[in-house]
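Hey Z.,

So I finally got round to the nicotinamide-adenine-dinucleotide thing we talked about over coffee. Here's the setup:
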Amino acid sequence: MAILVTGGAGYIGSHTVLALLQRGDDVVVLDNLCNASREAINRVEKLAGKKATFVEGDIRDRACLRDLFASNSISAVIHFAALKAVGESTRMPLEYYENNVAGTVVLLEEMRDAGVWNFIFSSSATVYGADAPVPYVETTPIGGTTSPYGTSKLMTEFVMRDFAKAEPKFKAIALRYFNPVGAHESGEIGEDPAGIPNNLLPYIAQVAIGRLEKLGVFGGDYDTPDGTCLRDYIHVVDLAEGHLKALDYLSKVEGYTAFNLGGGKGVSVLEMIKAFEKASGKAIPFEIKPRRDGDLPAFWADASLANTTLDWRVTRGIDEMMRDTWNWQSKNPDGFR
Ligand code: NAD
Ligand code: UD1
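And the result:
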């Protein structure tokens, strides 16, 4: 039996495929490569010393899914495939709902028809919306999302919840990621954003490598210790390991359930800059800019449910996140290209 990983050539997917192969699982990757490179999977296979089956295809393509389920024996699906740029989602909401929500519905229908009932979904802390109390805890109702991207994650959780109510065989876990950063310690795989990065750490790394001149810090007057926003950054390898724990836990799940995957601590933008400078020995020029629309001042996870139920916790801190980001960026100044 193999694990189907949709979006497995992407940033978090590739680290998870590596962890699965390293523990001996068979893996089928389905990715349309709209935001990834085939090279990521080549490198994963080299690191693991084991091959994955790679299918270049789309989760919205029924014929492709049917063929995939018919020709591989799949025990569970880890579903990363999605569009993920918040700003872009406000300009192209229909594309986001079509890809992220309708695409997941097609995937679930084809899973049902193939008799595959185990499902893990990449959700996001963003599903708690703008007004949830901090730290975020799974018992807080989700909703109040502020972008089509965020709403697409919320809607997908609702689709999972309702399908699980109707179909007792369906077992589903939504993993709500906080802020994934870092790279595999080998420096062979990491985050390779197309164009100018939206997210903080890829931006910092590209300033360090000389591809960008200066970081803009969005807001220096928040009600936080140093005036910049606080986020719960999580090392991508810790996050990948969370997926393995969730996979192992699926057999105990009844219906649909959700876990926060975060470290449980808020770190400021200025602290991130300092930590990166320490790890890389590079100065990061920055300038305080106006607040970015839609940014929340501070949020972090209460991850105690994942700690106790999944027996999962983060083991890598900010220093490792920075070391591994810099290692990846300096070894691959142009990403996978
Ligand atoms: P990514 O863009 O690197 O990975 C997504 C992968 O899915 C890419 O390889 C892309 O080519 C593929 N893909 C997209 N649409 C597809 C489709 N229709 N059919 C097949 N493949 C498709 O992003 P990531 O950072 O690795 O994120 C993975 C998942 O985690 C996404 O669902 C994302 O929304 C979610 N997430 C990410 C973050 C983050 O900060 N990176 C935070 C919370 C949640
Ligand atoms: C963003 C998304 C969120 C998504 C997450 C992961 C928004 C509003 N939120 O979260 O929905 O789940 O990415 O993809 O886009 N920052 C700067 N300068 C920069 C970039 C970022 O100061 O050039 C600051 C931001 O203001 C924020 C922090 O760094 O305070 C982290 O930003 P980012 O990495 O974009 O993550 P989020 O905004 O938390």
